[in-house]
Each structure stands twice: as structure tokens, then as C-alpha cells.
Design a protein that fits this description.
Blueprint (H helix, E strand, L loop, with lengths): L12 H10 L11 H13 L2 E5 L6 H12 L7 E5 L9 H9 L9 H5 L4 E6 L5 H14 L3 E7 L9 E4 L8 H6 L4 H13 L10 H10 L4 H8 L2 H12 L3 H4 L14 H10 L3 H10 L8 H8 L4 H9 L4 E5 L5 E4 L2 H13 L3 H23 L5 H12 L1 H14 L1 H17 L3 H15 L4 H18 L3 H15 L5 H16 L3 H18 L2 H17 L3 H7 L34 E2 L10 E2 L44
Helix pairs in contact: 2-3, 8-9, 8-10, 9-11, 14-16, 14-17, 15-18, 18-19, 18-20, 18-21, 20-21, 21-22, 21-23, 22-23, 23-24, 23-25, 24-25, 25-26, 25-27, 26-27, 27-28
């Protein structure tokens, strides 16, 4: 092998060929790993023991071979490669290494003694199934041979003193805008190179790069998966491959005779890693596969039971769970590669554990959403922002839990959807929120009970209003009033005021005035100052939007006001979101003089003209249907504030 001295190579060609066979030639090019080669080269030259770790199929062996080539000249006694992938008996590890080194062990000859005076690099590949034996042998050899360097590859580190762990990540993926523009990430570059080999007439074009980006992104940038996908290009074409890539476990398989059995399909690769886990680790892996996206340790314990955190960390050590990364809320979150998650979900179903795991996931989602709903009721302080970011980070989990509950636990689905309503509104996802909450309300039906049904209809009223459906908003608010039972409950009061806002959007000012004034009177009767303030604000805004400025001054609540059209705060379900309902042109914020109710009020500047309810100005209220001050103890009243303490 040119440039790679390997000690012990005999002179005759037959024996030389045998030596070359023992060391992988790396016939394929190494794509997208220039930085890793440089970094690992430095570690190998500077440290006696370096272990490259990572999930199966990430390219550990190929990188080790490339680095061995790069540093070969630094080791006068050669570079030796021992593939331990087929060794299952720990007692055979030393013998396998001795055979590679051509050392005959006997009573007076040991590996440690034979290597004591040599400067060589020993590459130990695929150590995971005999990791303890490899660790013991490495420690023994390094203690006896000062000039020995060991480069190991494994799915977990050896845990030997002085060891450097080099965690190898998948190839870089294209950013969404890069894919559209035809940018080439390392993952796309590998796909292009390998498809060119599999189908010489195939070439990526600027138009086809987005499809390639979809394929490599779905495969998490894993080199083995990309190479298996590239081998299918001639049979399926790029469009066909992209259409079927969600079934990567069943689709991607190689018939190459030289490849190890575990490298011939993604399913075999995943199974190899899974079978190496102890029973508790296997169960934990299956449970974590229920998460559709990143998860915290607390979430893992909520799903798999208290005290299971250490099992998650063990899976990180074994490269089956990716190391944690900070999410949008700053919390550290773990994740599984998509192919591993797909494999784990299959195992979860086979074990009969899927229903229990998804029920636990739904319960966790309700807990998170309930805590966040309480934070969203804090009127724009730090707790509200923290709650929004927390829900942003849990988006995938919340969506999956809601989808599951809709078909199996309708009461939980309704509770979850009601909790999420203010978040959908705050994030500009009113149409999605309306669709999901309407489906949950329809699925729950009469089983939801009065309080839950009233809360759902009140939130649907606001969501309909936010998406420009004033007639639908009126219908939902009316349904909330019918099902609330207690006309003095928070939900009923806000639904009444909210219906007033929607009626203005339907050019029914007289009816709107009746609802708003009744909401004010009932709120005062109930002693609900929050609902009273909101009803007064709605009544004042109704008058203002109809051009009755003096009347608006009369109704403006003490200290009441509405944020300007740039507000991003989560509104109450009864909030009209209607600053553009009066004029065709925006009006600035005007501070009203002191009114009969006390301190000045604020009239918002108008947002988008028109009465469709989709302007951005939002009447702000520190609580929605069923929140903390609700007389009826509605769903949102159960949200805990402990998650977002005062700062």
C-alpha cells in the first residue's frame, strides 16, 4: 500500500497481497470529512488512545482508514488493522490482535512484551460487542509500550484512563433555503458522488437538488443510508426514491457480498445496535422511540417511569441517542435519528407497549400544555415568553399526542387542544388551531361535559374570529353561552363580550351593544374585575369603531387598554382582534382623558382595514375561559404556575 508502511510485510507478492487484504483499501472516496480527518489526525498523533464513536453507519471505519493512511509515515513499525466485528467471544480479542500483528504468543512471549519497543499504530475496528475485553487489552498494551498508539472505533467509548473520545456526527445537511437554491451540503455531495457511481448517466441538476436534499435529510445525513439510497437510483429514479424514502427501513438494502451483514440494510444496522443492549436498555430505547422529536430527561421519565434518566444517558454513551442540544426554550433535549426511531417504533408495537407509551406521552403533553397555559395568562411578563418557547420546543410531541388522543382518548384530546389554543393564536396558527380544536370538540361530543365544552366553544369563537369568520365566531360564542350553565362564570362572561366583538364585524352594532353592556353588568354582579375590565374595553372599542368617540370615552375601563397592532402576546379567546374594523386607513394610538371609570384608557391604532377580524391589534386580557379566576373551575384553571415562577 503506497504511503502506508505496514510492518511485517514479506517480500514475495503473494504474502504482500495477504497483508493488503488485512487492511481496508478504502476504494470509495471519502466525501465531506476533511475537517474530521484533520482533527482526528491530530488526536491520533498526540494521544496514545483515541476512540471514534457514533451510531452504526455514520462512517467510523472509513474515517479511521483515511486517518491511518494520513499518519502512516509517523510510525516506523507500521499501521495494523484488526477488525473485531466478527469476534463475539471476549477471550478471543487478544488472539485476534496477535494474529494481525503476526505475534506467536507463548509462555515467554506476550503481546505487551512484543510491542514494548515498537512505535506503531494499532487500529481496532468494531469494538462494541467486546468493548470490555478491548478496554482491558488496550490498557495492558499501553502500560507496557510507551510508543504504541491505538485508534479504536466503537459505538461506545472504552472508558480507559487517558482515552480521547471522538464523537463522529452525521454529514451536514442542507438548509431549506440552500436546497431551494441548489446548494450542496456534505450529505448532498456524497449522494451525488455515489449516485454517479451507481448510475453513470445520472447527474444532479439545480432543479433536482431539492429532491436529493429531501432524501438525505430524511436519512439524517448518515453515510451508510445515503449510499444504500444511491444504489436505488437506477431502479427508482430520484423522484421515485424521494417519494418512497419514508420507508427507508424496508427500502434500502444492499446485495453486496463483501459488506458485513449488518451493513447491508438500515434495519440490520439498527438491529445490530439494539441487540447489544441489555434488557433494560432495550426497553428504554423502545419507549424513547415514541417521541416524534427532541425530548428532555424529564419527558423521558414521564414516559418510561421515574428513575429512568440514567438509562437514557447509557443510550447516549452507546450512540443510540444523540447528545443533548439546547431547544428554543433553553432546555437540553435529546433525540433519536429518524431511522432508529422508525426501528424503535416497530419494536414498540411488536412488544405490545405502544398504547401504554402513547397514553403516557399524551398525559405528559397535557401537563406541559397546562403549565404553559398558566404562563400565557401572565400578561406579557417573562413567564409568558417562557411558556411560548416551551411549547415551541415541544411542538412535535404536542402534535403527535393530540393526533393519537383524537382517535383513542377524546377527553384528553379536548383538554390538550383547549390548553394549546392561546399558543396557536400567539404563533399565528389560528387556522390550524381551529381545525384541531374543532376536531377534538366533535370527537368528545357530549362526553366532554359542560365546562370542557364551554371552554372549547369559547376558544373556537376567538379562533374563528382570528381567521376572519365572524359568523362562525358568533355561533361558537353562542354555543359557549348555552353550555356554560352559570352565566356568571368567566367563560360565559368572556364569550358574551367576545360575541359582541364578532357582531360588530357582521355590521350588527345594536346587537353588539346589547351583549357588551350585558357582559359589563354580569361581570360586576359576579365581582369579576378581570371580566369587567375586558367587557368595558370591548364596549368602548365597539363605540369607537362605530365612530362614537365620546361614548367610547365613557366606557373606557380604568387603566384599560389594548396593545398596538404589533403585539405578539397571546390574547384571550374572547378578544375581538378587530382594530381594523372601523376605518379603511390606520389610526394612531390615542390616550383618552380620564373617564368616569377612573384612569385613562387606550384606544388602539387600527391594524389592517376591514371587518374580517384578521387585523393584528388584539384586546389583551390576563385570563381566558376557565383560567385561574374562573368560577366554574374550567380546564385552564388546572394549569400550574410552578413551571414559570415570578422572576
Amino acid at each position: 500500500m503506497p504511503g502506508l508502511p505496514v510492518s511485517g510485510y514479506p517480500a514475495d507478492m503473494a504474502q504482500a497481497a495477504e497483508g493488503l487484504r488485512r487492511f481496508p483499501l478504502g476504494l470509495s472516496s471519502l466525501v465531506g470529512r476533511d475537517q474530521e480527518v484533520g482533527e482526528l489526525t491530530g488526536f491520533v498523533l498526540g494521544c496514545p488512545l483515541v476512540t471514534v464513536t457514533g451510531p452504526g453507519g455514520v462512517g467510523k471505519t472509513r474515517l479511521a482508514v483515511e486517518v491511518a493512511r494520513a499518519v502512516g509515515g509517523e510510525f516506523p513499525d507500521g499501521v495494523h488493522f484488526a477488525d473485531l466485528g466478527s469476534v463475539t467471544d471476549p477471550g478471543r480479542v487478544a488472539a485476534e490482535v496477535a494474529a494481525v500483528l503476526r505475534i506467536q504468543q507463548g509462555p515467554g512471549t506476550t503481546l505487551a512484551a512484543a510491542l514494548a519497543q515498537q512505535r506503531l499504530l494499532l487500529v481496532l475496528d468494531n469494538c462494541e460487542q467486546v468493548v470490555t475485553a478491548v478496554a482491558e487489552l488496550s490498557a495492558e498494551l499501553l502500560a507496557a509500550a510507551d510508543d504504541l498508539h491505538i485508534l479504536a472505533t466503537s459505538r461506545e467509548q472504552l472508558w480507559v484512563t487517558g482515552e480521547v473520545r471522538y464523537r463522529l456526527s452525521p454529514l451536514s445537511l442542507p438548509a431549506p433555503d440552500e436546497a431551494v437554491r441548489g446548494g450542496r451540503s456534505a450529505a448532498v455531495a456524497l449522494f451525488a458522488e455515489r449516485t454517479g457511481r451507481a448510475a453513470p448517466r445520472f447527474a444532479l441538476t439545480e432543479a433536482s437538488v431539492p429532491l436529493a436534499a429531501r432524501v438525505v435529510t430524511r436519512l439524517d445525513g448518515m453515510p451508510l443510508a445515503i449510499e444504500l439510497a444511491a444504489a436505488r437510483i437506477e431502479a427508482l429514479g430520484l423522484a421515485g426514491l424521494a417519494d418512497r424514502i419514508d420507508d427507508a427501513l424496508g427500502l434500502l438494502e444492499s446485495r453486496g457480498a463483501r459488506a458485513a451483514a449488518r451493513h447491508r440494510s438500515l434495519a440490520a444496522e439498527a438491529e445490530w445496535s439494539y441487540r447489544l443492549l441489555p434488557g433494560a436498555g432495550q426497553r428504554m430505547f423502545r419507549q424513547l422511540a415514541a417521541f416524534p422529536g427532541p425530548f428532555t430527561l424529564e419527558a423521558a421519565e414521564a414516559l418510561a417511569g421515574p428513575g429512568t434518566g440514567p438509562a437514557v444517558l447509557q443510550l447516549v454513551d452507546c450512540s443510540l441517542v444523540s447528545p443533548p442540544q439546547p431547544g428554543p426554550d433553553g432546555r437540553m433535549r435529546y433525540s433519536l435519528l429518524q431511522t432508529l426511531r422508525d426501528y424503535g417504533r416497530g419494536l414498540l408495537a411488536e412488544a405490545g407497549e405502544e398504547a401504554q407509551a402513547m397514553a403516557a406521552l399524551a398525559a405528559f403533553a397535557v401537563l406541559v400544555a397546562g403549565q404553559a397555559a398558566a404562563g400565557l395568562a401572565t400578561n406579557g411578563d417573562d413567564r409568558e415568553l417562557a411558556a411560548l418557547r416551551h411549547l415551541d420546543a415541544e411542538d412535535a410531541t404536542l402534535s403527535a399526542a393530540l393526533d393519537w388522543a383524537l382517535g383513542r382518548d377524546q377527553e384528553t384530546a379536548l383538554r390538550l387542544a383547549v390548553f394549546l389554543a392561546p399558543w396557536w393564536i400567539a404563533r399565528g396558527r389560528a387556522t390550524e388551531g381551529y381545525t384541531r380544536l374543532a376536531a377534538a370538540a366533535a370527537a368528545a361530543g357530549v362526553a366532554a361535559g359542560g365546562h370542557a365544552a364551554a371552554d372549547a366553544q369559547a376558544w373556537l369563537g376567538f379562533l374563528a374570529r382570528a381567521r376572519g369568520d365572524n359568523a362562525g365566531s358568533v355561533a361558537h360564542y353562542s354555543a359557549a353561552l348555552e353550555t356554560a350553565g352559570d352565566s356568571l362564570s368567566r367563560t360565559a362572561l368572556l364569550a358574551l363580550a367576545g360575541r359582541s366583538a364578532a357582531l360588530v364585524g357582521l355590521d350588527q352594532p345594536a346587537e353588539a351593544e346589547v351583549d357588551a353592556e350585558r357582559a359589563v353588568a354580569l361581570a360586576r354582579q359576579a365581582g369579576d374585575r378581570v371580566a369587567e375590565a375586558f367587557a368595558l374595553a370591548v364596549r368602548a372599542q365597539d363605540a369607537y369603531l362605530e365612530g362614537h368617540d365620546r361614548e367610547a370615552l365613557t366606557w373606557a375601563p380604568a387603566g384599560g387598554g389594548l396593545p398596538d397592532s404589533g403585539s405578539s402576546r397571546a390574547p384571550s379567546p374572547a378578544d375581538p382582534q378587530r382594530a381594523g374594523d372601523r376605518a379603511r386607513h390606520p389610526r394612531p394610538v390615542r390616550r383618552l382623558p380620564a373617564a368616569k371609570h377612573g384612569r385613562p384608557g387606550v384606544v388602539p391604532r387600527s391594524g389592517r382595514p376591514g371587518r374580517d377580524g384578521r387585523s393584528a391589534g388584539i384586546a389583551r386580557l390576563p385570563g381566558g375561559p376557565g383560567r385561574k379566576h374562573s368560577r366554574d373551575g374550567g380546564l385552564l384553571a388546572r394549569g400550574s404556575r410552578r413551571q414559570y415562577p415570578d422572576r
